[in-house]
TrEMBL record, chain A:
InterPro entries per UniProt: ChsH2_C, ChsH2_Znr, HotDog_dom_sf, MaoC-like_dom, NA-bd_OB-fold, NodN-like, Thioester_dehydratase-like
Protein name: Acyl dehydratase
Domain named MaoC-like: residues: 192-298
Residue ranges constituting the ChsH2 rubredoxin-like zinc ribbon domain according to the UniProt record: 18-54
Organism the protein comes from: Aromatoleum toluolicum
UniProt domain ChsH2 C-terminal OB-fold: residue ranges: 55-120
Segments crossing the lipid bilayer: none
Organism phylogeny: Bacteria, Pseudomonadati, Pseudomonadota, Betaproteobacteria, Rhodocyclales
From TrEMBL, chain B:
CDD domains: SCP-x_thiolase (cd00829)
Pfam families linked: Thiolase_C_1
Xref: PANTHER family: ACETYL-COA C-ACETYLTRANSFERASE, LIPID-TRANSFER PROTEIN, PUTATIVE-RELATED
SUPFAM superfamilies tied to this protein: Thiolase-like
Domain Thiolase C-terminal: 266-401
Protein name as catalogued: Thiolase family protein
InterPro entries xrefs: Thiolase, Thiolase-like, Thiolase_C_2
Gene3D superfamilies (alphabetical): 3.40.47.10
Length: 320, 403
């Protein structure tokens, strides 16, 4: 997930709630004067105004009060959660919590369904959000949704997929076979890479492009229209080399392969720092030239969940 | 208790809704001065008649504090009553009753209620991305310690669409849901807009099929059930009976009002499908000595079709859970048996920021004054107006009556 997603900033009042979530425990304030349960955390009871409030552990079970499935991200940074299953859960203690549902299909969601808590670690420092799933679901009570964990999980999956895919071998000088690779259909998605601030800073140093929108998270949080820093387009472009892509073919028999540059290079959408990216490709054209066979591979790199590519690159490769 | 009906809307001015990209940029102070001059001209009154000002505090471009004093100085007004209103979409309704109450208390005789909603020119250090930055979290506070910043935004609970959608989903679970009836609200209002050259969607007919085929934004709300934000701005002048007597138009007396709010996120409502417009409207009708069936038109705040549906029910125009049937069985157009949002509503007129709600107030005044042109109601003496802010979290109602 993008680092520019809004994150909770615990206060002195709320810290016990957030700290408990890190331990996989749900703790909410309870009024000892009138018995009222309180959410979100406050130091007073929002029924009787008493300050005789203490923290108590609760089961995390409740029912779905209402929900919606958002088809357009409520903020661009939530593109990797599409469609967003936004929910209001009413705990059995009576308090309501704004949250999201995980591990349930859209078609299963019903107002009134029983739900249980899921503790979702979203940042390497342990920051944990409270999500919910169906009470009957065989779904882990604790998740690790840090960008690193998500990228590693899909990396292993794509590696296995690529290993299992039969790769068609095509001789570079077999014009008909090469032309048969041309397709309107993109390959499946590649593995994923996290574009974090450290990577962006390293690229800024190498390239000399240290414009604040890339390198100054504090200023970018205040002034960038994206709520934080974004990666250089050129960085995202070259990260294509890091992505394992299930192309499904391998060109053979050539003496030399030349990266001839790009016919078209566009950066239509930003990549906020902390985003996961992945790519897919298709052979756009194959042309027999006097010096060899020229293949144009259209590679598009996207932030995970975003339909709009962050990089469109028509890569020209000459086989000789 | 309440108003005696001694204050009236006597003049109005409203910018034609325009897309932000093509609308003129004006400082808010300049818009206030311009709208004031136009509203005075409409009323047939002099600048010297004005001695009260109600203005928006939040989203005022040139200042965040001391707004009324700055505006009074800029315009050249001497004020006996000054007020800012911070009630989102029900700011307009809230302005009108506050002005009427101040007049009935004898504080002042003529109050300018004004909401500039065109964008201001960019400053030397500002760039066009300023708008995008300012709008990233919409009406949500990201301040340290703001409950929504801590407990809503990290989950993606933000903006208005999903909150309204969740209310609609819960309504559907409790009472059932008829997408075609919801579409009819938008369609009947569009029919009204086809008679209003000032409306954003004038000349663009709309069918229920188009509404239902439009993109689903957040289940069950389609994009054509959601208002389009536009640039604009509006003002009305509320005046005492004495001043109203020498004004040009038939006055619209403020005979009842109500206001109710208890939360910002509807998740914390006692029951999210029973909205604050209920208590607000009951108070307004009671104050005016009228029942919902007594009004000739309803100008209902319509940021979404679901807002209209719940307002019809909770304000008492039909029983709870009967709203869909009511919509199916009534013609909501200006020529129909339940004239509603006769200017097109904000869905078809356009929503000029917090001035959007003023379009409903001004349409009520225009109909009462008999100046609505092609869409003029044959008989119009009593009009109900509602305002809705946040996610049906702060709501207000007005009863306006012709003399």
């Amino acid at each position: 997930m993008s680092m520019n997603k809004p994150m909770p900033a615990p206060t002195e009042i709320s810290a016990p709630f957030w700290n408990a979530l890190k331990e996989g425990v749900l703790r909410i304030p309870h009024c000892t004067a009138c018995g009222h349960w309180i959410f979100y955390p406050r130091r007073h009871c929002d029924r009787c105004f008493s300050h005789a409030v203490e923290w108590r552990e609760v089961s995390g079970e409740g029912q779905l009060y209402s929900y919606t499935v958002a088809r357009i991200p409520t903020l661009p940074d939530f593109a990797d959660e599409m469609p967003q299953k936004l929910a209001v859960v009413e705990l059995d203690e009576g308090v309501r919590i704004n949250t999201t549902l995980v591990g349930v299909d859209e078609a299963e969601i019903r107002v009134g369904m029983r739900v249980k808590a899921v503790f979702d670690k979203v940042r390497a420092d342990g920051a944990t959000l409270l999500r919910f799933t169906g009470a009957e679901k065989d779904f882990p009570a604790r998740l690790d949704s840090t960008p690193e964990a998500l990228a590693a999980a899909t990396d292993a999956k794509v590696t296995a997929e690529i290993a299992a895919t039969s790769v068609r071998q095509v001789r570079f000088d077999d014009e008909a076979a090469m032309k048969s690779l041309v397709s309107d259909v993109f390959t499946p998605w590649s593995s994923k890479v996290v574009v974090d601030q450290a990577l962006i800073d390293e690229f800024a140093r190498l390239s000399g492009d240290d414009y604040w929108i890339h390198t100054d998270p504090e200023r970018a949080a205040k002034q960038s229209p994206f709520g934080g820093t974004i990666a250089h387009g050129a960085l995202v472009q070259i990260l294509q080399s890091r992505l394992k892509m299930p192309l499904g073919f391998e060109v053979t028999g050539f003496n030399n392969m030349v990266n001839y540059g790009s016919d078209r290079l566009r950066f239509p959408a930003p990549v906020p720092a902390g985003s996961r990216i992945h790519a897919r490709a298709r052979v756009k054209s194959v042309e027999k030239l006097a010096k060899g066979m020229q293949l144009t591979l259209e590679v598009t790199t996207h932030v995970v969940g975003n339909d709009r590519p962050s990089v469109i690159n028509d890569l020209v490769i000459l086989y000789m | 208790m309440g108003l005696k009906g001694q204050a009236a809307i006597v003049g109005a001015a409203q910018y034609r809704p325009e897309k932000y990209a093509t609308a003129p940029r004006m400082f808010h102070l300049e818009q206030v001065a311009d709208l004031a001059a136009r509203a005075l001209q409409d009323a047939g009154l002099q600048a010297s008649d004005l001695d009260g000002l109600v203005i928006n505090g939040p989203q005022f471009h040139e200042a965040s504090v001391f707004v009324p004093a700055m505006a009074a100085e800029y315009l050249g007004m001497r004020l006996n009553f000054a007020e800012v209103v911070d009630l989102g979409g029900t700011t307009s309704v809230g302005m009108v009753w506050r002005a009427a109450a101040a007049i009935e208390l004898g504080l002042c005789q003529a109050v300018l209620c004004v909401l500039p909603a065109r964008m201001a020119p960019l400053g030397p250090d500002e760039d066009p991305a300023w708008m995008a930055r300012a709008m990233r979290f919409g009406g949500h506070s990201t301040a340290f310690g703001a409950p929504e910043a801590e407990f809503d935004l990290p989950y993606g609970h933000m903006g208005q669409n999903t909150g309204y959608a969740m209310i609609a989903q819960r309504y559907a679970a409790r009472y059932g849901y008829d997408p075609a009836a919801m579409a009819k609200i938008a369609v009947d209002q569009r029919t009204n807009a086809l008679t209003n050259p000032e409306a954003m969607f004038f000349g663009k007919p709309l069918s229920a099929e188009e509404v239902l085929a439009s993109k689903m934004v957040a289940d069950p709300l389609h994009v054509l059930e959601i208002v389009m934000p536009v640039a604009g701005g509006a003002a009305v002048i509320v005046a005492s009976k004495e001043v109203a007597a020498r004004a040009r138009n038939r006055p619209a007396f403020v005979t009842g009002f109500g206001e109710h709010l208890a939360f910002k996120s509807p998740s914390y409502a006692a029951e999210m499908t029973e909205t604050p417009i209920g208590p607000a409207s009951r108070r307004a009708f009671e104050m005016a000595g009228l029942k919902p069936g007594d009004v000739d038109a309803a100008q209902i705040y319509d940021c979404y079709t679901i807002t209209v549906l719940l307002t019809l029910e909770d304000a008492g125009f039909c029983e709870k859970g009967e709203g869909m049937r009511f919509v199916r069985e009534h013609d909501l157009t200006w020529r129909g048996n339940f004239p509603m949002n006769t200017h097109g509503g904000q869905l078809s007129f356009g929503q000029a920021g917090s001035a959007g709600g003023m379009s409903q107030v001004i349409e009520a005044f225009t109909q009462l004054a008999g100046r609505a042109g092609d869409r003029q109601l044959k008989r119009c003496d009593r009009v109900y107006v509602s305002g809705t802010g946040g996610v049906m979290s702060e709501q207000g109602a007005l009863i306006l009556q012709g003399a």
